[in-house]
Structures are given as structure tokens and as C-alpha cells.
């Protein structure tokens, strides 16, 4: 069986947090040889940066850790939900915007906060927006994303197994 699963990481502008999650997750999936089974993208709930590459500060942080970011910002559409197996919101505001796009019953098994998979969340489910902060915020986001992505992959593997 050659079934696939699809995941989308969603933040506000799609130039900082979600492009990083996309890049880190792509590297992890490739490392595990699952690149033909897992479709990965990111998007923003806002449209201000559509078409833009990731913020240079986020690119630089990723590069320091050996991750290349290549996405171009796009706005998440309500119709995207249909093909997605997992949509992961970076903060509560992003989550609530996404929740307003579709009836709750359609989203209960696919829409979650990204940090609900963070093994070290200690009850804090926000990936803080680094856009208006200093450089340290980008590294904090990297650390959260790096430790959370393996747990997201575990969840997607379960979904893959169900489809096989
Ligand atoms: P992101 O960060 O949601 O992680 O991509 C932001 C990028 C841009 C803006 C806000 C957050 N902005 O207001 O333009």
C-alpha cells in the first residue's frame, strides 16, 4: 500500500514559526525515509506576507542547526482541511481562527495545538511569536519545534498505519 498522510503547520504570518516547523519536520521525515508517505506544508491564518520567504532571522536560526527553509508564505484556506490529516496551530489565537472555518465535528481528529505534542510543555501550549522580539525568541522556538516534531511524527505514523 502506498497511502500518504498530509500535515500542515499553521501560524499567523507563515514566515517564522510554521516555516520552521515545516523545515524541521521535512528533515526528520527524510531521515526516516518517509518522504514519499508524508506530505508537509505550512500556512498562515493571515495574508500579509503571502509569497514571501521565511523571515531572515528564522532562516538564520534554522541554518545554524543545519535546516534549510524554502517555503513561500500562503494563507490557510477552509478548503485545505478536507485533504489534511493533521493541522497544527502554533498558538491559541491561530487555533481559534482555524476553528471558525469549519464545524467542530469535522475538526476534532485533525486540528490540534502544535505544543500539545511537546513532551516538555508543562501545560504551556503556546509557541511564542518571535516576530517582534529579539534573536533569543527564534532559538526558543527552534528548541520547542525540534523536541516536538518527533512526537508529531509518531502521531502521523499511527494515522498512516490506519490507512494502510
Ligand atoms: P509567524 O510570525 O506567525 O510565526 O510567521 C509573524 C510574522 C509576521 C507578523 C506576525 C507574526 N506580522 O504581524 O506581520
Short description:
With 164 residues, the protein is α/β, with parallel strands linked by helices.
Q: Per the principal axes of the C-alpha atoms, what is the gross shape?
A: globular
Count of discrete structural domains: 1
Distance between the termini: 6 Å
The CATH first-level class comes to Alpha Beta
Low-confidence stretches: none
Give the assembly state of these chains.
single chain
Element pattern in H and E: EHEHHEHHEH
Structural class: alpha/beta
Radius of gyration, in Å, reads 15 Å
Q: What would the CATH topology be? A: Rossmann fold
**What's the count of strands?**
4
Name the helicity range: 40-55%
- Assess the beta-strand content as a share of residues: 5-15%
Strand order of the largest sheet: 2-1-3-4
Identify every distinct bound molecule in the structure, by name, code or SMILES. 4-nitrophenyl phosphate
Looking at CATH, the homologous superfamily is Response regulator
Number of helices: 6
Average pLDDT number: 97
Just name the CATH architecture: 3-Layer(aba) Sandwich
Kindly list the characteristics that best describe this protein.
164 residues, alpha/beta, Rossmann fold, four-stranded parallel β-sheet, 42% helix, 13% strand, binds 4-nitrophenyl phosphate
